[in-house]
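[audit] Reproducing an earlier prediction to check determinism. Same input, same settings, fresh worker. If the tokens differ from the archived copy the diff job will pick it up downstream; this log only records the rerun itself.
[audit] input (401 residues):
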Amino acid sequence: MLVDDREDNLLSMELVLEKEGYSFSKATSGKDALKILLKEQDFSLILLDVKMPIMDGYETAAIIYEREKLRNIPIIFITGQDYEDSSVFKGYQYGAVDYIRKPVNPQILRSKVAVFSELFKKNQLLKLQEERLRSINEELLHLNQDLEERVKQRTLELEKANAELKELNISKDKFLSVISHDLRNPLTALLVSSEKLYAGAENHTPKNITTLSTIIHSTSKKILQQLNELVDWAKKQQDKTNFKPESIHLFNRMNESLELLNDNAFQKQINLQNLVPKNIYVSADSQMLRSILQNVVTNAIKYTSHGGCVKVTAQPLQSMIEVCVEDSGVGMSPETRDKLFATSFSSSISGTDNEKGSGLGLLLVKDFVAQHGGSIHIESSIGVGTTVKFTIPGNEIEETR
């Protein structure tokens, strides 16, 4: 920008500099210069005459540098005055970077303008490089954030996969436990009946043979049916949404479970009593409920002495049904009872400290009861017996049948 109150001075400076390929904005007063600067701010240099009417070069420079966006434009003062120390100091005080004395020496003018023009180009290049660097940094930041998000997502996927594997492993243990407890007893009854038939076939009457054959046939059908149900149930366990409780008549379901365990009880002359009221219905998963009942009753038979008794009762408890399986067995110490739910597959539901089963049944029962929103606890005294109490949701619609 060229600023001088005389047109001839502006023209002479323009003629000196035009061959260098510069573009110019000209102003004949400080006020005009400020108007131009308010609209256009991308100047490499301001050549500013000091002595002008109304607003001299010092005042103009002071106003220019009051604006943040104009402070980086260098100003060279053009003066016809002598270079007195006070004038030089005043010019630098107002922001001047240099002085050029009138009459202007063309070579000096071109040289000084060239220096500031080159400096402007380098500054522009530096700004461009800074912008590029900032852009690269932002890209790197986004890439890093994207990478972190991918790593986080992958970690969550791996954690989910690991949790699923753990659940599958638990489901496998549950399935093995269900097979162990639900099929072992009817298979034992089947084996005992077949051994009796095989061992003394020539001594059996037709009636005995028919009775044993009937037991073998009916038990085999029940085992096959139960095995098919177990396989179907195990498949559904992989999808928790398949947990769909249904209305079950508790007395009938208890009878079915006790029927499968009758032969085991018969061998020890244990009396099995189903004292469940016939008007009670529960809302439960059919397979889970059968496993709960058979596990608890099997343990009661196992630890009840010859000629003892195992009885099952039930009663409403708010919105739940409390089922009690009471035996007259050996019982257990308080220490053993307290450890039952604190250990993992290491203790069975009943028995003294020296009589321990696989322990699979206990955690299985506890898990199945918990899935129904119920609870389980044990009362026991050594030499008196054990009572297992657990709750299962009642069916309000059919409870009064």
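[audit] rerun output stored. Observation attached for the diff report: The first helix runs from residue 7 to 17.
[audit] end
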